[in-house]
């Protein structure tokens, strides 16, 4: 069950990273938040990649299937990260992050198509509870009608963006598992997220008028803080993912929604905390059904 610990740690570190990014850098445009999230973790990942590559001859992992997998993964991850940072900039954490709980729902399909993974009946029940919980996130709008909480998802731009991210993550999570199968967890985490940091920064620099060096010099402490928490998430994520089916690991990692609601309240004084905690309890019930009753 050690995978459970690492999956929950991944959820905690990603929610803390998001909160710190929003607190210190959301006053800037979202491309800067993307750079902090990806390039900020580079100093904590790349040295590990160099060490493991030297010690275990990691260059042998660069097969054609591995390169193909990583290339597709990078394209999707960069798109998801841009949408993700834009979403948490536009809307409260407690109203956006919970929509990542849809990733396990989408993984039922992607995990089966790409890796042949199957989810049990109990697992499916747990995932349904996650979906119901996401409906309850928008319960304050139910006075406008029974379907209002669903319509609110599209009306709240950040929530709708994170729902799109959840779908993309349902693919990248499975591709990440494939990358681990073709290499090993720690090496893959240090390699992939290092490359992601460089590639995403280059793309941001090409398509957005960012002042990269000025940004780094002025906000280096915030960037490193976000990067450290993101780096710890990367290692925890890959270790957990290497030990269990993708759908189960990602579902447990979504305890990040609980941490996001709590951090949103204490750091940003976000509203409707009790209703959103109730929704989170439904989601976590689904998560524990998946984890312990599957």
UniProtKB/TrEMBL annotation:
Q: Does this UniProt record's set of keywords contain Disulfide bond? A: no
Question: What region holds the EamA domain?
Answer: 1-138, 157-291
| Keywords, sorted A to Z | Membrane, Transmembrane, Transmembrane helix
Which residues are the signal sequence here?
none
Matching InterPro entries: EamA_dom, EmrE-like
Please provide, in alphabetical order, the Gene Ontology terms of the cellular component aspect for this entry.
membrane
Which segments cross the bilayer? 35-54, 66-85, 97-115, 160-180, 186-208, 220-240, 246-266, 273-293
Q: Does the keyword Transmembrane helix apply?
A: yes
The name this protein goes by in its record: EamA domain-containing protein
Native species: Thermodesulfobacterium geofontis (strain OPF15)
């Amino acid at each position: 069950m050690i995978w459970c610990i690492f999956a929950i740690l991944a959820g905690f570190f990603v929610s803390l990273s998001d909160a710190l990014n929003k607190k210190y850098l959301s006053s800037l445009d979202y491309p800067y938040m993307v750079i902090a999230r990806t390039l900020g973790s580079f100093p904590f990942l790349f040295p590990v990649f160099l060490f493991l590559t030297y010690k275990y001859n990691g260059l042998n992992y660069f097969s054609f299937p591995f390169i193909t997998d990583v290339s597709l993964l990078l394209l999707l991850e960069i798109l998801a990260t841009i949408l993700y940072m834009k979403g948490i900039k536009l809307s409260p954490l407690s109203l956006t992050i919970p929509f990542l709980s849809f990733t396990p729902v989408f993984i039922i399909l992607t995990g089966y198509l790409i890796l042949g993974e199957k989810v049990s009946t109990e697992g499916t029940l747990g995932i349904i509870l996650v979906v119901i919980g996401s409906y309850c996130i928008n319960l304050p709008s139910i006075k406008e009608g029974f379907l209002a909480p669903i319509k609110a998802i599209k009306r709240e731009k950040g929530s709708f963006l994170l729902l799109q991210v959840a779908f993309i993550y349902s693919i990248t999570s499975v591709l990440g598992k494939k990358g681990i199968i073709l290499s090993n967890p720690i090496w893959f985490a240090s390699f992939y997220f290092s490359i992601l940091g460089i590639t995403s920064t280059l793309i941001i620099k090409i398509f957005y008028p960012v002042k990269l060096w000025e940004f780094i010099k002025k906000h280096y402490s915030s960037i490193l803080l976000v990067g450290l928490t993101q780096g710890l998430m990367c290692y925890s994520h890959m270790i957990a993912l290497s030990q269990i089916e993708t759908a189960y690991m990602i579902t447990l990692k979504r305890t990040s929604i609980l941490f996001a609601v709590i951090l949103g309240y204490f750091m940003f004084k976000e509203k409707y905390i009790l209703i959103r905690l109730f929704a989170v309890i439904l989601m976590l019930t689904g998560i524990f059904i998946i984890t312990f009753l599957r």
